[in-house]
Amino acid sequence: MEQLLYASEVVVNGLMTGVMYALVALGFVLIYKASGVFNYAQGVLALFAALTLIGIQQGQVPFAHLISAVTGMHLDSFGWTVPSLLAILLTALVMVGLAILIEALVLKHLVGQEPIILFMATIGLAYFLEGLGDLMWGASVKSLEVGLPQGLSETVETMTDSLFGYGFFIDRLDIWATIIAAVLVASLVAFSQYTKQGRAMRAVADDHQAALSVGISLRFIWVMVWSIAGFVALVAGIMWGTKSGVQFSLSLIALKALPVLMLGGFTSIPGAIVGGLIIGVGEKLFEFYIGPMVGGATENWFAYVLALLFLVFRPQGLFGERIIERV
Amino acid sequence: MLYREAGDFKTSYRDDSQTFPLKLDRWGYYAALAVAFLVIPFVITDYWANSVLVPFLIYAIAALGLNILTGYAGQVSLGSGGFMAVGAYASYKLATAFPEISILIHVLLAGGITAVVGVLFGLPSLRIKGFYLAVATLAAQFFLVWLFNKVPWFYNYSASGQITVPERSFLGWIITGPQTSASAKYLVCLGFAVLLAWVARNLTRGTVGRTWMAIRDMDIAAEIIGVNPLTAKMTAFAVSSFFIGVAGALLFSVYLGAAEASETFGINKSFLVLFMVIIGGLGSIFGSFAGAAFLVLLPVFLKNVLVGSLGWPTDLAAHLELMIVGALIVFFLIVEPHGLAQLWRVTKEKLRLWPFPH
Fold first, then answer.
1. pTM of the model
2. Could you tell me the membrane topology recorded for this protein (chain A) (predicted)?
3. What pLDDT sits at residue A148?
């Protein structure tokens, strides 16, 4: 009984982690669906967004280190702080600007290239953004504070304590992340189903040429999709940044989102969510039951191996479109 | 004017299909080899060996390996770091278990072990393609590194969790360990690089290479014309992993002398080797060397300019280096998706006509 309760606590925490993975995976799916680009840079986008948010919040001077290295001036901050909400808005604007730049400088020139070339280009982009983020805002580990509640949720603890006689430890941040993720997914689905731009986006996802021929601007849609992905990255960056601090390892979460995508299928938004949950729960349970036997830290690889084994039996993932190949 | 084929007559198929059909190319190649083997070992300094030439040669071997898999057989892999770790740890285990056998043989055996591991992780490629495969190879990367960190047998229960190479010599020359001279390190790596490049060149232009390329271009069509995808993909994984394993073994035993799985062979190594292949040129032997040279030299160059000449702090230089590498990759993909190798080809074509291009 005791063991079972522990395990269910692990499952609940795994579900929460899964939501966080799904948040990153969502950005991937959006871009993949609309442009067929497998955007490796999504995780770095999240890191960049979080860094920018902190920078704006604290009124840091961008490129302060660079400027002081080149000119010898000592700049650190403008001396003001920006309220969280405004800072988030400004960061969202920066992400839109970034989307426009990426489209104009990278994607436009790579239309019609093979998917693998586009993938490599986003790896290059990831390196560039990583360097840029560090150069703009400094490479030190920062903590992000936008007013999200954190720490043990007492309501859940007392409630479970009275029910099972054992209080579950659940971070309030995780609960908030779940709610925010649900809202985000709902609004994304509503956007793509009920608005003109959303329908145009789905049309582009279906067939680039057909979409072009009915007068949809491919470039506009791409900028829009990358902006949305940037916004999703911002949300993910806020969540992960609040949880574990803003640092380079944040961008590695993108790597964790990859097996999530493979499980769920690259083209399915529900797939990203379900995949995230499966991975989140799976790796926590595996670490709980098997981890102690093999020396722990199995979370590093479990997701990938699970996805690998899964793909052997179902190459398109759970909800992906069936892969049909013709000669 | 200088570079031309006029007067270079071929009288047999053999002459026509050799690696360097032009006399000038051939002599240039022999001259480069002669300089590499007979001149550089006598003038090499520790700085040049450790920061430029030895890493260049080792990464060139790794890039050759990945190029065989990705450039020739079309299977994208992000597991090179993990496979290099297999080579390193295998050579370490072999060298400590059988000290009487030459370490050069251990390096080759380590390559063989890596080939077996590579085939194991390559098996899913029969079902999984493209991105899905790229992500699946990440499983190899993370699992292998974790394995080498968590199972003490692999690092002989050393307290630090590191592996340190024992001192070994070959024909009276110390070739591993801290006492190794710059020229010994360089010659060992050069020997392996030249030998493996020769093997790669001849594999890729023979039957095996053609089946790889058929699979790369369109695997279903290749299957229909009688290429067995199982053997083609598995040989590609085996040969590629062999090369990468040898590179990992050399990186550990000759170049670094000590290694720790997650630090030395992390995911960044996988990307580094992949970038070398892309910037150098997919499906080109020369490209592997060019890409390795480029990405080994770039940080050295940037560091010298930014830190040495401009006096910037090293961390700024490192960030700028990331940006430049990223931008260059995007730039290359846009301007020349076939990499430095294609630039070289175009240059040669232009040179043939120069100075009368019409």
1. 0.86
2. Multi-pass membrane protein
3. 67
ipTM of the complex: 0.79
Name the residue among B204, B266, B170, B192 with its Cα closest to residue B70.
Answer: B204
Segments making up each domain of chain B, as ranges:
46-266
B196-226 pLDDT, tens digit each? 999 999 998 889 999 999 998 888 888 899 8
Give pLDDT tens digits for B108-147.
999 999 999 999 988 888 877 777 788 788 888 888 888 8
CA gap A27, A180 in Å, rounded: 15
Helix intervals (H) in B251-266: 261-264
Pair of tokens at residue A296: 């722990």
Tokens 């479970």 correspond to what residue? A160
Mark yes or no for CB contact A117/B333 under 8 Å: yes
Q: Which residues of chain A does B220 touch, with a Cβ-Cβ cutoff of 8 Å?
A: 325-327
Q: Which strand (E) or helix (H) includes residue B46? A: helix B46-48
Torsion angle defined by CA atoms of residues B121, B124, B128 and B133, in that order, rounded to the nearest 10 degrees: -10
pLDDT at A214 > cutoff 70: yes
Where are the domains positioned within chain A? 32-254
For residue A314, the 8-state DSSP code is -
Reported as a single tens digit per residue, the pLDDT across B280-310 is: 888 888 889 999 998 888 888 888 887 777 7
Could you identify the residue written with the tokens 């073994």? Answer: B249
- Select from A8, A21, A1, A23 the least CA-distant residue to A285: A8
* Residues of chain A contacting residue B136, judged by C-beta atoms under 8 Å apart: 262, 304, 307-308, 311
**A131 vs B127, B221, B326: nearest CB:** B326
